[in-house]
Structure formats: C-alpha cells, structure tokens
Design a protein that fits this description.
Helix content: 40-55%
Structural class: alpha/beta
Oligomer: single chain
Length: 334
C-alpha cells in the first residue's frame, strides 16, 4: 500500500503570473473544486508564492476566499498600478526600479491580517536571506507548530516578490524573538520550486512506498533569440535588464530537466510540466505591466488550455486529481 502525494509547483515570473493563474482557473473549472482541496502541498516562488497564498487564504467560513479566476482578475486589475511610476533610467542604476507602496496596499486589502498558519493546505515559499546569505523558506507546516515561523501572509507575499533591481529587500519582524529577517525573491536560487517541494514532502512525510503526483506550472517561455552579434556588444547596462529573466528562466528549465528523472512514471506517480510559449514579439520582461500585454498573456494561457492546445493533458491531470481527492476524502490509500 502506498500514498500518492499531490504537489503543485508554481514558478516565479512577475507579471507573467497571469499565465499560471489562468491555467489554475481552468483546472478549477474542469474539476469543480478549489485548488486548495486538490493538492497536499502548494509551492510557489515570487508571483507563484502570491498565487499559493491567495489560493489557500481562508474566509470567515474556512473556505477559500479567492478562486484562481478571482486572482487572475486581480492581476489584470492591479498589476498596472503596482508597476507604475518607475524610476528614471538613471535613477534605476542607483536604486530599485519601483517603490512598493501600491503593492503593499494591494496585499493589505487582499490578505488583511491572515497568517501563514491559517493556510487551507500546506504552502512552501522560497525567499533568500541577504544578511545571512542563506535560503529562507516559509512553510505553513512550520508556522502551525512554532510561532517564530508564523508571519502575516501579506508580509510573506511582499518578501516573495522582492525581485532584486525591481523592489527593495523586505525586512519582516519576528514577533516571538524581537528580531527580524531581510529577504529578497527566492527566484535567485529556486525560481522553479519543484525540487524544494519534493524535498519537503520526502523529508517531513517519509514513506518507503509513497509516490508523487506533481503539476509544475511555468510563467511562459520566450522564443526571442539573443544573437551573438547583438549581445557581444552589450556591457553592464545593456545586460542588466535581461539578466534577471535569463537567470530565472535557466533555473526553472534546469530544475525541470532534473524533475523528469526524479519522478519517473510509476503507477499513479506522474510529473507534468505545463509551460506556455509566449506570443511572438512579446517583451518577456517580468515587469511588463501594460494591460495589452497582460491580456495577451491571459489569452495565450487560455489557448494553451483549449482542445487545440494542451486541453487533453489538462483533462488527464484533472481526472487523476479528482480520483486522488476522492480516495483521500474516503481515508483510503491507493
């Protein structure tokens, strides 16, 4: 007898978080169940962390306050406000490109005073502690048993999205100790948190015969080439803008290659990586916040979910998730 752990992993990608939000909305529509009930662990980096928190925030009745479609609509509505009034080109050389005041207000309105320990299903959100030069990984499972690991969801979301060059690092107080931690976006080491999620489940809930059903969501793959004759002329200033995207995308794809070997298909064990090709001539910048761009990302994700795209794969994923959910609800093992 064995247990099949259901894991959802969501990449970082700034404004491109519209893509996984739209895919998750399609999964909820197909299954008729909220994402928090379909998975045992949701791991998210950067914008993926915000999605993980939003999908597991309870309302007053202990049910999910936001559907994936709600969050997608919030993205389309609020992202242009969050990424507004950037520093001048010269100012961005000396300080982060954006101020976080508008972002903090959106998170305050969305999460209120809800805490990490209240997440409806386990969440895992990688960040990086710049003072100690170590990964800091938020875990709702830890928050439930020790106050030092429990934080307000809105603070965790703000830290998760603190991408270097775009936003200031975020200092979060630890109420139990009087100390604080200074964090940036975990995309600097784990833009694809699949490995973090698998390691967490295996270490905290070891089972010799356990298997893993993982759905890993990317935030879009750019087809725009960087040709040698073009980039060979670049210096520090020219490289500074695309470098963040290149590092995050390379981390995500290298983790994907490892996951394919770590989770070979055995019985109900499956690994699915869902990655949308960005529309041609799309600016892949993770802070491209024009409404036209966001709508193009949303449409690209909807096309991906259609019958002519990856609809059959999504149907297969949803069918398995529902079956595993029924087995869990019945207290059965596969």
């Amino acid at each position: 007898m064995h247990r099949v752990w259901r894991i959802l992993s969501i990449d970082g990608g700034g404004t491109r978080g519209v893509i996984p939000a739209t895919i998750l909305a399609s999964i909820e529509a197909r299954t008729g169940q909220p994402i928090s009930q379909l998975f045992d662990l949701i791991a998210g980096t950067s914008t993926g962390g915000i999605l993980a928190l939003g999908l597991t925030k309870p309302n007053l009745h202990g049910e999910p306050e936001f559907s994936a479609r709600n969050i997608c609509e919030l993205y389309l509505q609020e992202i242009p406000n969050i990424f507004q009034d950037p520093q001048s080109w010269w100012g961005n050389l000396l300080r982060p490109k954006y101020r976080s005041f508008a972002f903090q207000e959106v998170l305050k309105n969305s999460f209120g005073t809800c805490r990490l320990k209240n997440a409806l299903t386990d969440v895992l959100i990688p960040c990086y502690d710049i003072e100690h030069r170590l990964p800091y990984i938020f875990k709702s499972s830890a928050a439930k048993v020790e106050s030092e690991s429990d934080f307000q969801m809105r603070d965790v979301a703000l830290a998760a999205a603190a991408s270097p060059t775009l936003f200031h690092p975020i200092r979060i107080p630890r109420s139990s100790t009087g100390r604080d931690i200074c964090l940036v976006d975990g995309g600097v080491f784990a833009n694809n948190p699949s490995l973090c999620a698998l390691s967490e489940v295996k270490s905290v809930r070891p089972g010799d015969n356990d298997q893993y059903f993982m759905v890993s969501l990317g935030t879009g793959r750019s087809s725009r080439p960087l040709t040698d004759e073009f980039v060979s002329l670049w210096g520090y200033v020219q490289w500074s803008r695309p470098m963040l995207e290149l590092v995050m995308e390379s981390i995500s794809e290298s983790v994907h290659e490892q996951m394919k070997h770590l989770l070979p298909s055995i019985n109900d064990q499956e690994y699915f990586r869902l990655q949308v090709d960005l529309p041609q001539r799309t600016d892949p910048a993770i802070d491209n916040a024009s409404l036209k761009h966001l709508q193009a990302l949303d449409q690209a994700a909807k096309n991906f979910c259609s019958e002519s795209g990856s609809g059959k794969t999504l149907d297969e994923i949803c069918k398995t998730l529902l079956r595993l959910s029924e087995q869990n609800a019945a207290g059965l093992q596969v």
